[in-house]
Give the backbone structure.
Amino acid sequence: MDTGVQSSAEWIAEGERYVMGTYKRFPLVLTEGAGMAVWDCEGREYLDFIGGIAVCSLGHSHPKVVEAIQKQAAKLTHVSNLYHIPPQIELARLLVENSFADKVFFCNSGAEANEGAIKLARKYGCDILGGKYEIITMENSFHGRTLATITATGQEKFRKGFEPLPDGFVYVPYNDLEAIEQAVSERTCAVMLEPIQAEGGVRVPDERYLKGVRKICDERNLLMILDEVQVGMGRTGKLFAYEHEGVSPDIMSLAKALGNGFPVGAMLATDRVASAFAPGNHASTFGGNPLAMAAGKAAFEVLTQEGVIEHGARVGLYLKKRLEELKSRHSCMLEVRGRGLIVGVEMDREIAETVNRCIDAGVLIGSAGTHVLRFLPPLIVEEHHVDRLITTLDKVLEAV
Ligand SMILES: *Cc1c(COP(=O)(O)O)cnc(C)c1O
């Protein structure tokens, strides 16, 4: 095949021909990235306020992560979990030393991390709680696309057409402690939730909500599972979102930013809970392989040792302030919400055109559902990037 330079239109046509159509993609062919910028195959630059969906928190192609991947790839890429793997042990240790957890299981995505969390909760329920299996999850949540995780996801649209689904999930409204109390039964083993609902529209619960969930779990002898796949790893201004409330879960899932773009997922738990898993109960061929772990370890070190999280928290406040100012001039903006660098803007109309026009103006932004603009920039974003976003949005909102 001729491998000469291809235009965007040619790539898009080929992509539609060969790649399964599970995504409605923007007509944009991205081929390079550095820091806050990505470039398309024709050399046009874009300012990235979505960061690969909260993944590239250190910016694109961070030199230390690139170097770690290159070095490890040349040394040892994969051997399987039949053997001990030093970079895996080192990343597990970093996660344990910086969280509530005592043990880590590595996998390759957020859905897998949640699948592991659900299996661990069920195993614990079976062995320790005398046969309990039901998990209470939240309406409007998002936990992934495997059969168990679409079932845990409290949104009908993700489940439709995939029945029969696994049994044992009960849904309650988010941010409603009373609803959890009422849903607990003699079968319940766990409550599973996001500290902030991300895909569900950037919904920040009331202060003390997570504390309340923790209290119910303690009183009723349930496991508290936090899905920090999107909001973990510094996104909210602390390493983990649960730290804002001074509570800790029994199980937590991580993925997105963990490898800064290299696919890495993790499921963390306390010793008490993790001990429900014995050899053979759960596994992953690729999970925790040397290459993924080298990427994860380099990303973790940069994130925690170079002030990136604190910087992100500061710029997050600035982003919210600038969006609030913009809101005072555009009545189509109903509410600005979020924490750190997960920020949403609820609009009075569908946002597809706004997102498209921002792309045309050279700025990538995200959405959460049909009416919420979502901003998930790399945590290295600077005030002047925010200013450019605001100027662009101002013009776009003027036009739509
Ligand atoms: C993205 C996401 C997932 C799923 O992660 P994948 O890596 O796409 O499987 C699960 N939970 C939350 C909160 C997410 O944001």
